[in-house]
Amino acid sequence: MTGVRVGLDIGATKILGVVVAGDGTVLAQAREQTVAGPDGVLASAGAVLERLAEAVDGPLPPDVGVGVPGIVDRRRGAVKHAVNLGLGGDWFPLADQIGARAGALRHFGANTARSHFGANTARSHFGAGPARVTLENDLNAATWGAHVLSGADDLAYVSLGTGLAAGFVLDGVLRRGAHGAAGEIGHVPVDPAGELCSCGQKGCLELVASGSAASAAWPSRDVPPAQALFAAAAAGDPTAVAARDRFVDGVADAIRMLGLTVDPRTIILGGGVANLGAPLLDAVAGALRAQAATSPFLSSLDLASRLTLVPRGVPVGALGAAMIGDAG
After folding, report:
1. Which of 77, 202, 222, 286 is 20 to 30 A from residue 54's alpha carbon, by CA?
2. 266-305: b or e for each residue (b if 16 or more CB lie within 10 Å)?
3. What predicted TM-score, i.e. pTM, was given to this entire model?
């Protein structure tokens, strides 16, 4: 399985795993619900690895990339402050722990490892050595996945998920930042009189332009709130129209900020809200054109023409995690 790799995208609600070829082609996928806490996260990740081994009907490849929220020390393979995963303020050696579970699957595959050693023994018998695990922040992993998918070497990836953040590949290089805080645009204050943000500041952009903002503006139990909001606005509900326009203007503000600071050639919208597809893309592009209508300078930047979407259903985070070793 030369060049084949494994990627895990670990989130608060689910863990998505992929096996990919060297060119980024997805060969197999598996998904499990995330159980919070150190033992739960490891058990969930181990279940995904076992399902991937079953899907490829043989041993897993030696290279495993993992995208995880929180502060990541790539050299140590450790994460902290992944609070949504139940991993608190102390460094947790996630790479070694996942490597221990991938080791047996690397040598024997899921069925043989379980039948010869039992699930628990198989996961720990060989240690981390047989699997080379690379740990990365989940946004950076998704950004690299967007780079692999698009082929663009100068891009900003805007993640519209529970929160709002951006990742960058500039001149083919993943930009992480000196303190790992590059692209935390969701925590740029835009309204001094606004609500208190979870980061401790007031009026952050994330409170206007994120999945959480859409949920607060238009709560929904049956479908994702952003989808419900856009549907109600399309049906002519005046309250929904106002809420949608405020949301879209916030996303356009985020993109304008990126255009005026980083000036990326390509801007890719991803995250759960991006599953809206064309309605989101068209609305944000329209808001950008409206903002530029009275500014020849903004008009000359033509930000709307740089926008694109992650293809629906593509596991960009897991794909990026699998390929993150190429990012350096």
Report:
1. 77
2. bbbbbbbbbbbeebbbebbbebbbebbeeeeebeebebbe
3. 0.89
- Which ranges in 118-195 belong to alpha helices (H)? 119-124, 138-150
Q: For residue range 130-180, what is the model confidence (pLDDT) as tens digits?
A: 589 999 999 999 999 999 999 999 999 999 998 999 999 999 999 998 887
What is the spatial distance between Cα 9 and Cα 283, in angstroms, rounded to a whole number? 29
Which residues are CB-contacts of 201 (< 8 A; sequence separation ≥ 6)?
187, 189
Domains, the chain, ranges and CATH?
A: 5-141+316-327 (3.30.420.40), 151-309 (3.30.420.40)
From CA 321, how far away is CA 52, in angstroms rounded?
Answer: 15
β-pairing, 266-270 vs 307-309, is parallel
pLDDT digits (tens, 9 = 90+) for 261-317: 999 999 999 999 999 999 999 999 999 999 999 999 999 999 999 999 999 889 999
Is residue 244 within a helix (H) or strand (E), and if so which, with residue range?
helix 238-261
> Strands 26-33, 78-80: parallel, antiparallel or unpaired by DSSP?
unpaired
The single-letter code of the amino acid at 64 is V
Q: Distance (Å, rounded) from C-alpha 325 to C-alpha 261? A: 28
d(CA 278, CA 251): 15
DSSP 204: B
Q: Give the up-direction half-sphere exposure of residue 274: CA atoms within 13 A in the CB hemisphere.
A: 22
DSSP string across 69-110: SSEEETTTTEEE-BGGGTB-SS-B-HHHHHHHHHHHHHHHHH
Distance spanning both ends of the chain, measured CA to CA = 22
- In 3D, which of 89, 77, 9, 20 has the Cα closest to residue 48? 9
3-state secondary structure of 311: coil
Gap between the Cα atoms of 172 and 154, Å rounded: 6
